[in-house]
């Protein structure tokens, strides 16, 4: 259900259930979480097998839920999304085809979301009398703003790759999303990790700036880094 491989400095995590558009069961969520917990590479590339990124939660699983198990399932997905978000390195979601519901929410937990021109995204839960509960109602407005987030979530409309790029859901549109992961991996590993931690810092601005200056000093102090400006 989840395949992993390592190619140089990039760990490739594949949602591998193409017949179900890579929809995730509880077991699939566990395997995805384990793939990130086991990773140590500076860059992780998350993508889906076949013609979809991820259809979100497995509908057979959703149909079997009662109130208590629904809360557990939502918290399960939220925990996995946090594991992705808090990974100590850069995470790139490569979206080649549909991403729906929980699939969008997992992508939102990544640092970059790169879609091919064929990518489509939708928070389609509203059409089923539900909504994305894997952290989407928090992350989507944080990324695109409240007004656009409400439009996407309340309408359930399908965003094309260009729509998603214009809205800020996608970071880039590229025919080769994996190449973006390789692009990041070509950079200095420590600087890559440091930048992610600095950008994701939620402390008050003055405290962030103090930490930023300290982190810059730590990078400068390293004897083996390519910042000596010899050219």
Automatic annotation (TrEMBL):
<dbReference type="Pfam" id="PF00378">
    <property type="entry name" value="ECH_1"/>
</dbReference>
<feature type="compositionally biased region" description="Basic and acidic residues">
    <location>
        <begin position="219"/>
        <end position="231"/>
    </location>
</feature>
<protein>
    <submittedName>
        <fullName>Enoyl-CoA hydratase/isomerase family protein</fullName>
    </submittedName>
</protein>
<dbReference type="InterPro" id="IPR001753">
    <property type="entry name" value="Enoyl-CoA_hydra/iso"/>
</dbReference>
<feature type="region of interest" description="Disordered">
    <location>
        <begin position="202"/>
        <end position="231"/>
    </location>
</feature>
<dbReference type="InterPro" id="IPR018376">
    <property type="entry name" value="Enoyl-CoA_hyd/isom_CS"/>
</dbReference>
<dbReference type="InterPro" id="IPR029045">
    <property type="entry name" value="ClpP/crotonase-like_dom_sf"/>
</dbReference>
<comment type="similarity">
    <text>Belongs to the enoyl-CoA hydratase/isomerase family.</text>
</comment>
């Amino acid at each position: 259900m989840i395949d992993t491989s390592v190619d140089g400095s990039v760990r490739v995590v594949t949602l591998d259930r193409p017949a179900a558009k890579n929809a995730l069961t509880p077991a699939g969520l566990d395997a995805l979480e384990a793939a990130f917990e086991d990773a140590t590479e500076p860059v992780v590339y998350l993508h889906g097998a076949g013609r979809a990124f991820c259809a979100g939660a497995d509908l057979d699983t959703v149909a079997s839920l009662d109130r208590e198990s629904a809360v557990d399932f939502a918290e399960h997905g939220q925990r996995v999304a946090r594991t992705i978000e808090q990974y100590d390195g850069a995470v790139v979601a490569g979206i080649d085809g549909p991403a729906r519901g929980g699939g969008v929410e997992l992508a939102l937990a990544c640092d970059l979301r790169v879609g091919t021109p064929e990518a489509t995204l939708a928070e389609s839960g509203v059409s089923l009398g539900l909504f994305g509960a894997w952290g989407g109602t928090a992350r989507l407005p944080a990324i695109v703003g409240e007004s656009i987030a409400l439009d996407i979530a309340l309408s359930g409309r399908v965003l094309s790759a260009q729509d998603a790029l214009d809205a800020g859901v996608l970071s880039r549109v590229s025919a080769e999303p994996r190449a973006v992961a390789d692009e990041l991996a070509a950079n200095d590993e420590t600087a890559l990790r440091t930048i992610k931690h600095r950008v994701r810092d939620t402390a008050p601005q003055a405290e962030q700036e103090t930490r930023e200056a300290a982190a810059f000093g730590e990078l400068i102090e390293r004897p083996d880094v390519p910042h000596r400006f010899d050219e």
